[in-house]
Each structure stands twice: as C-alpha cells, then as structure tokens.
Amino acid sequence: MTAPSPAAQAPPAAPDVLARCRDLVRPALTEAVGRLHPWVAEMAAYSFGWCEVGGAPAAAPGGKGVRQTLAVLGAEAAGADGRAGVPAAVAVELVHAFSLLHDDVMDGDATRRRRPAVWKAYGTGPAVLAGDALFALAVETLAAAPGGPGAVRLLSGALAGLVRGQADDLLFTARPWTGPDRVTTGEYRAMAEGKTGALLGCAAALGAALGGAPEPVVAGLDRAGRHLGVAFQLVDDVLGIWGDPAVTGKPVHGDLRERKKTFPVLAALGSPAARHLPELLRSPGRAGEAAALIEAAGGRTAALAEAHDRMAAARALLSGLPLSPGPDRELGLLLEFLAGRER
Question: For the whole model, what pTM was predicted?
C-alpha cells in the first residue's frame, strides 16, 4: 500500500504546529538552561514546568510555546529550514520566562500555571536572580547565532517596548477609574502592544531574520506579531474576568478582585449604562455584579471586537508578504487558534 502524497495529506492543526515547533526547540532550550548555575537552572526549569522544587521531574504542563513557534515559522516562511530559527526561538522563550518571573513579583501573583509562582516557591530574591539569568542567557544565545549582532538589536528594541509597556501597566494601577486622569482605551492599546505585542512581533521577525529574509519581510512580520500581541492580551482580559477556572487556572472574576484596569472594564466605563461600575469596582466582594454590569455595558463585546480587528490586521499584513506557502498557512492556523481562545 502506498503512502498518500503530501498534497493528499490533511493539513496540520494548530496544536500540531505548536507541538512540532516545541519539539524542535526543546533540546536547544534545555541545553541553554543547563549552562546556568545549578540552582538558577533548577528555578528556570521549574518556571518552564520541567521540574518540581528540588529538581524532581514534573508532570505539570508548560506553556503552549507560541513565541518559539512564531520564531520557527518565521524562519520557515523566509524559505529556510526551521532549525535556522531555533536560536531566535530559544532567546524569545528565555525572555518570555524572564518577564513572567519578574511580572509575578511586581504584581504579587502567587500562582502561575496552577503552581506556586517561582517567587513563592523559592523566594523573591532568588526569583529576580533567575529572571536576570534568563535574560542574560537570551542575549548570549542570540549573540552566538549567525547574524547575531543584528538579531541582538532586534531583541533589544523589543525589550525596550516590553519595559515601556510594563511600566505603563504598573502606573495604571494608581490612576482613578473616572475623571480626567482615568486610563483610556487608547493608552491601554499602546501598553498592550509593548507589554505583549513587542515580544510576539520580535519572535517572528527574529526567526525570519536568521532565516535570511529581506528587511521588509522582517518588518512586516514584526508588525503582524504586534497586532497578534494586542489581540492575545485582549482575549486574556476577557478570560481574566469570565474564563473557566478549570481552563485558565485562575479564579473566576479574578482580574476584577485585583482591580486590574483591563480593556473590557475601560470600554464599559465609557458607557452611560455603567455609571454604577466604579462603585462596584472598589468592592472586591461585588466582583460578580461588576462582571455582569461590564458585560451589559458592552465591555466584553468591545474587547472581543477589538481582538478580532487586530487579528484581521495581522492576517492582512501576512497576506501582503512574499512568504513560503506552507509556513504562511501554518501562521494563519496559529492566528485562528489564538483568536478562538475565548470560546
């Protein structure tokens, strides 16, 4: 019996694309983490879900690997072998882990992926140290790759955007819900593009750059990834209020109890129907009432509409780039998969 031709085979599903790219990147990521001080390497491995405190192998799942997948697909979309994008994938995964370690400390988040956050498991100082080590390792990994200096410049630009976004996000917490000093949806979009979009755009752009893509393709993938990042953050905002705890690993209405200024809340506050919302937001015990009012005032709908618009912008950018057909199709599959997380 003859095997079906490649043209007759079913196209891959997005989870298969994510798994393929994770499997390609994992040996290099493991090798890089293994170069760290043993104690720091254990904290890094714990943050990736590879081990428990003390180093015993863990059954806890890690993340989806979206950023490393974008880096591999970026290289393949440029016509290169996916292995050309592996240094970029390792670097962005290390930077993402670094940002999560520090974010959890800054935000006081005690859990990550249904386990104690690194700072809760090992202490605040050790968690900061592990994050710093991951950042340094990311730069070292890229600097050693072919085209390293240019790649490091791309990563540095993304890091600057990430820091600006995180700084704005932290400052938002001290600003009022209403009045002239309130946080606007426009400010929120800019924050999300930096905090979340900068690294997603950088991942695809870095992979393409290491794969030999011309500058317009690298820049186009970066812009598409930034749109994806804003959409990703908006869907996270929806899940942070209305998500199923069994899926998200977070308590229902958790973002409201923590008084986070997320897009659904900011959009609802602009509606006359939400005139009592500030009062509810100041009372964590009334988070359920606040969630219902935000939905009634159109906050949830506005966030999802904005996310869908950003996904459409990303798709339009990708369709205008001269990308290899297979990876281009897989990038589209990844966008559809991420856009559907709210369902």
Answer: 0.91
Quote the CATH superfamily of domain 13-342: Farnesyl Diphosphate Synthase (1.10.600.10)
Residue 64 is given by DSSP the state -
Does the pLDDT value for residue 1 go beyond 60? no
Closest CA to 186 of 203, 170, 199, 168: 168
d(CA 156, CA 198) in angstroms, rounded, equals 10
What span, in angstroms and rounded, lies between the C-alpha atoms of 81 and 90?
16
Residue 64: the pLDDT is 87
Compute the distance between CA of residue 256 and CA of residue 292 in angstroms, rounded to an integer: 11
pLDDT per residue as tens digits for the range 167-191: 999 999 999 999 999 999 999 999 9
- In angstroms, the CA 74 to CA 171 distance is 34
Contact 227, 197 (CB under 8 A): yes
Q: C-alpha angle 266/188/261, rounded to 5°?
A: 45
Return the structure tokens found at 80.
């290169």
* Tokens standing for residue 247: 């899926």
Residue ranges of domains in the chain:
13-342
In this structure, what DSSP letter does residue 193 have? I
Q: How confident is the model at residue 328 (pLDDT cuts 50, 70, 90)?
A: very high
- Indicate the length of the chain as a whole number: 343
Looking at residue 11, what is its pLDDT?
63
Q: Locate 166 and state its tokens.
A: 């995180």
CB of 242 closer than 8 Å to CB of 291: yes
The one-letter amino acid at 43: M
Q: What is the distance between the alpha carbons of residues 30 and 141, in angstroms, rounded to a whole number?
A: 12
Q: What are phi and psi of 112, to 5 degrees?
A: -150, 120
